């Protein structure tokens, strides 16, 4: 975390804004549009995720990666129900809902499984390869089996930077399978997303132009204090259409204008905090170069630590170092690792 972010947090708390809708605080919405486009450009995301470009894409700040994943899962679910009802009018809505199925890897974060529980839609945790990466062939096999058995594939949640070892799922091959089967592809880049900003990590962004949505936690790698989770959608209308519940007291005369999104339709709660302020102040104070230097510093510290582990014959690496994460253990019995963990 950084002092500019804390200043932003204090100001936002002091202003006491509860952004139910644009009219409650135009600055709260409009600064969020600005900083989400800054951030998308900083991370070199495809233009389709920018508010400023023609088209239905854009970014929003959620509280956590868990909320972002849940929003994607719920929106994909509702889209699938609408589409399937048109294709199969003979089926009732509850029959369709009972057939829905989603996918992720057995290495994905617990929040993915939780999203399935909340959305009342089973999420199959597919076996990742020996390198702990999920690839298209595993997804293809699972989808084909499920379709054969009459299930309806809805969404695949891939991870760039798994919690356990910071493994990167193969987005290109997963995207090919998702496109073939009309399945929503979401990428959880909660930790690793910050490295998109570095030219030397450009490989990480491979396939990102083919995903429907993604999330990245600024509170993990971007010096912004908790909570601040960026989410981008290729077609925000799919979320808005799924979550749009209106009341007379929420209406205002500027509704529906393209540069004025009503972010309440993009999230679970109605009210929202002015989180964009801490992002804005952090970016303005540290600058893009300062933030890139921060990510590079984490990586170089991890490289140093990796070298220490490799040079010490009592320890071994259990996975390749990835960004700022080094997975290591003492050689020998697992009990020694458990003891070391306790002492740490
Ligand atoms: N996704 C990944 C890959 C994570 O590593 C984590 C947390 O460690 C999460 C999601 C959950 O993040 P949040 O606490 O913002 O919901």
- The N- to C-terminal Cα distance equals 22 Å
Number of domains: 2
Taking pLDDT < 50 over at least 5 consecutive residues as the criterion, the unreliable ranges are none
Calculate the mean pLDDT score and round it. 95
In CATH's first tier, which class of the largest domain applies?
A: Alpha Beta
* Annotated CATH homologous superfamily of the largest domain: Type I PLP-dependent aspartate aminotransferase-like (Major domain)
User: What structural category arises from helix and sheet content?
Assistant: alpha/beta
Q: Could you please say which CATH topology of the largest domain applies here?
A: Aspartate Aminotransferase, domain 2
What ligands does this structure carry? pyridoxal-5'-phosphate
Q: Nearest-angstrom radius of gyration?
A: 21 Å
Helix content: 40-55%
Protein described:
- The protein has helices spanning about 5-15, 25-40, 65-85, 95, 110-120, 135-150, 170-180, 220, 235-245, 275-310, 335-344, and strands at about 60, 100-105, 125, 150-160, 185-190, 215, 230-235, 315, 330.
- By secondary structure, it is of the alpha/beta class.
- The chain has two domains: about 5-285, Type I PLP-dependent aspartate aminotransferase-like (Major domain) (Aspartate Aminotransferase, domain 2, 3-Layer(aba) Sandwich), CATH 3.40.640.10; about 290-344, Alpha-Beta Complex (Aspartate Aminotransferase, domain 1), CATH 3.90.1150.10.
- Strands 1-7-6-5-4-2-3 form a seven-stranded mixed β-sheet, with helices on both faces. Strands 8-9 form a two-stranded antiparallel ribbon.
- Helix 5 links the parallel strand 2 and strand 3.
- The longest helix is centred in the C-terminal third of the chain and has 36 residues, at about 275-310.
- The mean pLDDT is about 95.
- Pyridoxal-5'-phosphate binds near residues 188, 191 and 229.
């Amino acid at each position: 975390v950084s002092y500019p972010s804390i200043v932003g947090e204090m100001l936002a708390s002091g202003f006491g804004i509860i952004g139910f809708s644009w009219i409650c605080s135009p600055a709260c919405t409009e600064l969020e549009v600005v900083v989400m486009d800054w951030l998308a450009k900083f991370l070199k995301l495809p233009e389709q995720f920018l508010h400023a470009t023609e088209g239905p894409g854009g970014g929003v700040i959620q509280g956590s990666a868990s909320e972002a994943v849940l929003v994607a899962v719920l929106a994909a679910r509702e889209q699938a129900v609408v589409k399937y009802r048109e294709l199969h009018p003979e089926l009732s809505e509850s029959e369709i809902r009972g057939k829905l199925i989603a996918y992720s890897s057995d290495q994905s974060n617990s929040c993915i499984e939780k999203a399935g529980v909340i959305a009342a839609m089973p999420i199959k945790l597919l076996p990742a390869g020996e390198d702990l990466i999920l690839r298209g062939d595993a997804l293809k096999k699972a989808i084909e089996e499920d379709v054969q058995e009459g299930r309806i594939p809805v969404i695949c949640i891939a991870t760039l930077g798994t919690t356990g070892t910071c493994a990167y799922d193969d987005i290109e091959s997963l995207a090919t399978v998702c496109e073939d089967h009309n399945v929503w592809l979401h990428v959880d880049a909660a930790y690793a997303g910050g490295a998109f900003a570095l030219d030397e990590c450009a490989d990480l962004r491979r396939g990102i132009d083919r995903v429907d949505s993604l999330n990245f936690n600024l509170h993990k790698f971007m010096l912004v204090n908790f909570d601040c989770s960026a989410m981008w959608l290729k077609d925000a209308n799919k979320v808005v259409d799924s979550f749009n519940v209106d009341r007379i007291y929420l209406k205002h005369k500027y509704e529906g204008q393209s540069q004025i999104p009503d972010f309440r339709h993009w999230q679970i709660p109605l009210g929202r905090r002015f989180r964009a302020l801490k992002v804005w102040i952090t970016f303005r104070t540290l600058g893009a170069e300062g933030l890139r230097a921060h990510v590079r510093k984490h990586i170089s510290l991890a490289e140093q630590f990796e070298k220490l582990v490799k040079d010490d014959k009592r320890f071994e690496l259990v996975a390749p170092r990835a960004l700022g994460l080094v997975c290591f253990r003492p050689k020998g019995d697992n009990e020694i690792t458990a003891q070391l963990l306790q002492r740490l």
